[in-house]
Design brief:
Two copies of one chain form a homodimer. The first copy, chain A, has 251 residues and is of the alpha/beta class. Helices cover 48% and strands 13% of the residues of chain A.
Chain lengths: 251, 251
């Protein structure tokens, strides 16, 4: 089944209310914290959360809200930027693989290896053939994490409309508290919107491990949607606190 | 085409003489040093040499002889041992990927990711199903290095007979200068010889990037064989010293 992003709404379903769902999100965030504690204590499985989306789609805000109740000891987040010289001297997955989560941990990628078939493809820094080879390598890499390290890979495309993105980028200029987020280059990337959508659709449709499309025009619904999926995933992983067998002296 | 190790000789071809081929090896070792210098200066391609073989098959000696004339700045070697706790908390390729060579460099693996489908499989620490999944992951990993980082992957199986191995292990006991190499566990692994051969054959036959089988009962021929293949590979990579274009001031 092939998805078409322009056919998917960036808004919450009509019948949902902000107030009620913000309260539900808070409840879920607490449960996520409890399950993260168990995951860490158990030390047998790990969770990799990948957040991808256009600029201003809410990646930072999602991390801050959804994982607010996790113990920093067992969770880490990494924002992938332009590769360093050392990273450029290796294959594109080299720096990414090194950041894969330890057993017992949650790792959140703010951007990821998908940039290597998004921004690099949009700007034609790589050939279409190389993009296709990289997609196959990504599938093999994500499957490796799952089968060899009990890592659950959870990928979100933060689906925002171009109009809403423009509003948020303008906020970065208008609101002094958000000025630090302003980058002129974000506006330039906007000229490539349609090409980005084509490349995102390719990545989503060719991935063996499925994506969740998070409608992200409204912060409250984006947080609710992602918290719900993260919670369901952790519940299905069902981490267990190890209990000592006291019958043999606890060894 | 499927290979059967028991059908392949561990000895040099009859018509080769030790003295003459030792001299040839020395010539090749010098040329390897010259090409390694160019590879480093060029900074566009890299070479990964993987040495696998039973204990005492000559991995250390090969590194010492064949790469004797390389500049340590552009070459590195890594001997994979039992994984650390941190390594065990990741997939089996995690620690290996991190050691992949930079563009411009040669990396030599003394043992490698293949141990994860050799010793682990022989001792049944992993299921046959997991060994097969790992083999597929290895193929994807090695291909990634080749297509995304211009890394040539050169793999040697150091083919030694069980009789010759016993002799060399005995030398580790009898010769005080070699006592440091003695490990009682090496003798225990010997009980699993046939199973090791089965797992090596699987790895060699299922690999997409081909192996070279280096007859290793005689040190001089093993060195000659491996130096020849390394030299041919570097010649085919054909690294070029970058030359300044002085017409525009050398920029």
């Amino acid at each position: 089944m092939s998805i078409k992003l322009s056919k998917i709404s960036t808004l919450p379903p009509d019948d949902l209310t902000k107030k009620k769902h913000e309260a539900k999100t808070i409840e879920m965030v607490i449960k996520i914290g409890e399950l993260q504690h168990k995951l860490y204590a158990e030390g047998k499985q790990s969770l990799l959360v990948i957040l991808q989306g256009m600029d201003a789609s809410g990646k930072d805000g999602t991390v801050k809200t959804v994982f607010a109740d996790c113990n920093p000891t067992g969770i880490d987040t990494y924002a992938f930027k332009k590769p360093t010289d050392e990273e450029f001297a290796h294959d594109f997955l080299w720096r990414v693989h090194h950041k894969a989560p330890l057993k017992g941990n949650i790792m959140i990628f703010n951007r990821s290896h998908y940039e290597d078939i998004l921004i690099q493809r949009v700007h034609k820094w790589i050939t279409e053939e190389k993009a296709e080879k990289r997609m196959k390598a990504i599938n093999a890499f994500e499957e490796l994490l799952e089968f060899d390290n009990n890592t659950k890979v959870l990928k979100f495309y933060m689906h925002i409309s171009q109009e809403r993105q423009q509003e948020k980028l303008q906020e970065h200029i208008d609101d002094p508290a958000k000025n630090w987020k302003h980058k002129a280059a974000d506006w330039d990337e906007n000229d490539h919107w349609d090409e980005y959508m084509r490349c995102y659709e390719y990545a989503i449709n060719e991935s063996k491990i499925p994506w969740s499309i998070a409608p992200s025009d409204k912060r409250w619904y984006r947080n609710y949607f992602i918290a719900k999926k993260v919670l369901e995933t952790l519940e299905a992983m069902n981490p267990q606190l190890p209990i000592l067998d006291k019958s043999n002296g606890g060894s």
